[in-house]
């Protein structure tokens, strides 16, 4: 059984580049419609992101890998927001701990808007 080759890890600068490219094409990528023409447009857009990312970073990554990493960034951003909210309510009125955020996560949080923060309780 052959082991699959792993690509290099995403550095913080690579995640910032990816988040900037996603923000550039956010209207297409975050479109909630799901018909055939939208899927084709999204595939073309991810291929554009792939070529721009590869040109900017010098590391060759497939569009599928970039899309998966973006989805993971979104999950991580939501986890950070949830832990911040949990920390605020757990202090009982005292000062809460500041949870560190990376620049890429800050960009994704701004992209997500209300869907990342959830409903007020």
Automatic annotation (TrEMBL):
- Keyword Membrane attributed: no
Matching entries from InterPro entries are given as: Myb_DNA-bind_5
Domain Myb/SANT-like DNA-binding, first and last residues per copy: 6-81
Keywords in alphabetical order, please. Transcription, Transcription regulation
Q: Which Pfam families match?
A: Myb_DNA-bind_5 (PF13873)
**Its quaternary structure?**
Self-associates forming complexes of several hundred monomers.
Stated role: Involved in transvection phenomena (= synapsis-dependent gene expression), where the synaptic pairing of chromosomes carrying genes with which zeste interacts influences the expression of these genes. Zeste binds to DNA and stimulates transcription from a nearby promoter.
Q: What is this protein called?
A: Regulatory protein zeste
Species this chain originates from: Macrosiphum euphorbiae (potato aphid)
